[in-house]
Amino acid sequence: MFCVNRGNINWRIPGRTNTEPLSLFEQSSPHILFFTISYSLINMKTSLVLSVLAALCQSAFSLEEGSYTIGSSLESNEVLTQSGIGAALTFYAKRDGEFSQTWRFTPSSDSQRDFLIADPAGNFINCGDEAGSPCIVGSAKEVYTAELVGDNSYQLVAKKSGYFLRTEGDDLQLAEWDQSPNEVFVLEPAQYYAYKLLIPFMISSQACLEYTSLI
């Protein structure tokens, strides 16, 4: 406990009278304590802000769980499609007004970037663990890391082997990282395509309503 009397600081210290002069350290102690506490609080606030920003950035740049079409960055009109269990996955051209195959991305761990990738029937993308091996759909739960490289553009890395998914012609296979666009994929949410298919229906419905209102 201390008192301030018009510029004179009088400490009440047990075993000591109020008339004894204070040492330089004792006079500066309140200021040292004040700045120490202030500095600690600032550090705590800064750490909290940085933690929140880190969490927000991680969330903003992470792929969300959901269904997507997997497009080739080489051919904007092609999406990854399966022709059957055990058959090599192939990129086929999208057709306007028709359904394009989607793939379900499900988080496989606490990481927001690791996913199991499955078709609507629940079969998983399987690429093995050797470079050059073709990708098929099967029962093995292989984990892939989605690394953002651009707007809706990702690299998909096999968690077990560290190899990258890569387009080779129209096929999908594992390969070493080479910084080429062959290893970049465009992931579009399934809702985007559903909305595109609904637009003609919405326009025709609106036209019908306007026509019937004139009758």
Quaternary class:
single chain
Helical residues, percent = 25-40%
Which structural class is indicated by helix and strand composition? alpha+beta
Question: Treating each run of at least 4 consecutive H or I residues as one helix, how many helices?
Answer: 2
CATH class of the largest domain: Mainly Beta
Number of domains: 2
Order of H and E elements: EEHEEEEEEEEEEEEH
| Strand percentage | 25-35%
Question: What's the main sheet like?
Answer: 6 strands, antiparallel, barrel
Give the overall average pLDDT. 75
Residue windows where pLDDT falls under 50 for at least 5 positions: 1-9, 48-60, 193-205
Q: Just name the CATH architecture of the largest domain.
A: Trefoil
Instruction: Report the radius of gyration as a whole number of Å.
Output: 31 Å
CATH topology of the largest domain: Trefoil (Acidic Fibroblast Growth Factor, subunit A)
How many angstroms separate the termini?
90 Å
Strand order of the largest sheet: 3-6-7-10-11-14
Shape: globular
| Counted beta strands | 14
